[in-house]
Every structure is written in structure tokens, then in C-alpha cells.
């Protein structure tokens, strides 16, 4: 079924899922992005219209802040009955607004939540699917090669609610890791702090976790901040409070904005972040 599918957005997730579709479009049309398409044997189209027209299924994998606009602008090119699989990390209300645009065009909208890092999982990443067309969406995903697809009960927004609320913890721990590691290094007590954490959580290997979490924030902090903006919307709509998540947004955005390549090792990452912050001060 690969030849009938298309990507809208071809970043890290699109490349990890490259075997699922034969063509795609990314608004970043520079030489590097063209090379990404070529490397993964996916045909780069010059427009969203060219990618979407005639596709039976469209995997939407843009940044969180572009998810709704992608659905609204892409709806005009959808064939009746085509499936728009919204795999973006956005709030339930954002997904419901995207659904309205897709269904107004006579197509089918599927809420898909990606529940783990796409690298290195690729098509084995766990996916949750919800909404009235969840069964059709799950079948498309399975036929495209995804191996861990599960339908969850509920309308559009059910799968994304699970993803968003989970991200409070996952991305929040990343932000706390950064705050703790940077402060421990600045105080000259990082070894003692890590040893104390390891004693409290045997087997957790906090040095490795700090290193991994900082790596993800340096590389993806800007994108993670956009996702956490959507988490904030989710929590505010529920009325449960979002104070901690707002702090996560700020920390993710600040580290992502440094624009540095992550060096190897925790100490080198911490030094790089602190040095860039000092220069910017």
C-alpha cells in the first residue's frame, strides 16, 4: 500500500517511518531536506497539493504549531473518503479542529498518538488510535508496516489526551534533569548529587539519564516546547492546573534555542549549555 500513501512533513518522524509512503512534501525545501527524501527513497513533491492528490492515506507529521494549518490547507486536495492520519503531538481541541476541516472536505480523520521516541523504534513505535474511523486508520497503519497499533475507546481526542498527559511527566522529567544537572555542575557537586539519586533509585543510572535527556533537549527542545504548549492547552481545558508544565515549556525552549550540536558526554553537554548561556547574558 506504500504507493498510495503520502507524508505531509518529513522530519525525524517522517524519516523513521519512510517505508510507509512513497511520496511526501515538507515546507523546508532546501538541499538538505531534498537529500533526506532521497536517502530514504521517498519522492519529494514540490507542494502539499502534489503530495496529497490521489493519496488514499496521508500521514501528517509536522511540528505541533503547524498541525492545524496543515489540515486546513491540505483538506482542499483530499479525495472523498481519503484518510488523514494526524500523528502530531497536539491538544485534543487542536485535533478536533483539524478533524472539522478534514471531514468538511468529505475525508476521514484519524487521531493517532505516537507514544515513544521514533528513533530507533521506527515502524515498531507504539501508536494509539481513536475516533469513529479508528478501525480504518489502524488497518492502514498495519498495512503500511506499523507493528504496534492499538485502538483506544473514545472519539477524536482520546488518543491525544493520553499522549499529552503522559508528556507532562516525560518532558517534565527532561526539564527537571536539565535544571538539576546544570545546578549541580555549577555548584561543583554533580558527582555527589548523581550518587545520591542513584542511591534513592537503584538501577536508575541518573548520569546516563541526564546525558540522554540533555541530548534530546539540545536537539529537539524547540519542537518539544511547541508540543508542551499543546499540553498546557490540554491541562487548562481540563481545569487541573498547568504550572509545572509551563516551566517545562520555558526550559525546553531555552535549551533548544541555544542552537548547538550536542557533544558526547554529560559533562561536555553541561559545559556547552552553561557557556552559551553565559555568552548570551
CATH topology of the largest domain: Rossmann fold
Provide the CATH superfamily of the largest domain: NAD(P)-binding Rossmann-like Domain
CA gyration radius, whole angstroms: 20 Å
Indicate the overall shape: globular
Q: What kind of oligomer do you see?
A: single chain
Question: Please, how many helices?
Answer: 12
Named at the architecture level, the CATH assignment of the largest domain is 3-Layer(aba) Sandwich
CATH class of the largest domain: Alpha Beta
Mean pLDDT: 96
Q: Tell me about the biggest sheet?
A: 8 strands, mixed
Total E-strand runs:
8
Side-by-side strand order of the widest sheet: 3-2-1-4-5-6-7-8
Uncertain regions: pLDDT < 50 for 5+ in a row? Answer: none
End-to-end separation = 53 Å
Structural class: alpha/beta
Strand percentage: 5-15%
Q: What count of domains describes the coordinates?
A: 2
Helix content: 55-70%
Order of helices and strands: EHEHEHEHEHEHEHEHHHHH
Active site: 163
Protein name: 6-phosphogluconate dehydrogenase
GO molecular function: NADP binding; oxidoreductase activity
Domain 6-phosphogluconate dehydrogenase NADP-binding: 6-131
